Amino acid sequence: MKMYHETRKIMHSDIEVSATCVRVPVMRAHSEATWIETERPVGVEEARKAFAEAEGIVLQDDPARKDYPMPLFVAGKEPVYVGRIRKDLTHPNGLTFWTVSDQIKKGAALNAVQIAEYLLGVKSL
After folding, report:
1. Is residue 69 within 8 Å of residue 30, measured between CB atoms?
2. Which long-range contacts (CB under 8 A, 24 or more apart) does 111-116 make?
3. What is the DSSP string of the chain?
4. How many structural domains are present in the chain?
5. FRET pair for 64, CA 20 to 30 Å: which of 1, 38, 70, 85?
6. CATH number, domain with residue 34
7. pTM of the predicted model as reported, rounded to 2 decimal places
8. Domain residue limits at 16
């Protein structure tokens, strides 16, 4: 329920969120399996391109080589790593992907600084 309430609060929206949180013994990284429903169908290649061009995101998605983000390898790094991008088999506008990031750097300190920098640059405070 925390993810449900926090997402709605952060996005200032009545967005629908369904999530399951699992605690696992990792040193410094959070991982999420994400399913989204878009307004129109989004292909895997289109999603890969969008993630690859997004600031602060590293696309790590090579299914043939089983190369995707793992918490063990992102500790101490700043970006959010995205991989395992797939079309959802049950919904034409559904897409699933896997994200991993350092919970201390990106999840707390760095994220707060980046939000402040964004607000200062965009909002002209």
Report:
1. no
2. 114/56
3. -HHHHHHHHHHTS-------------SSEEEEEEEEE-SS---HHHHHHHHHHSTTEEE--BGGGTB---GGGTTT--SEEEEEEEE-SS-TTEEEEEEEEETTIIIIIHHHHHHHHHHHHHH--
4. 1
5. 38
6. 3.30.360.10
7. 0.79
8. 2-123
Distance, first Cα to last Cα, the chain: 34
Residue with tokens 């429903």: 37
pLDDT tens figures, 33-70: 999 999 999 999 999 999 999 988 999 999 899 999 99
Residue that is written with structure tokens 């600031």 in the block? 55
Give the whole-angstrom CA distance, residue 82 versus residue 77: 14
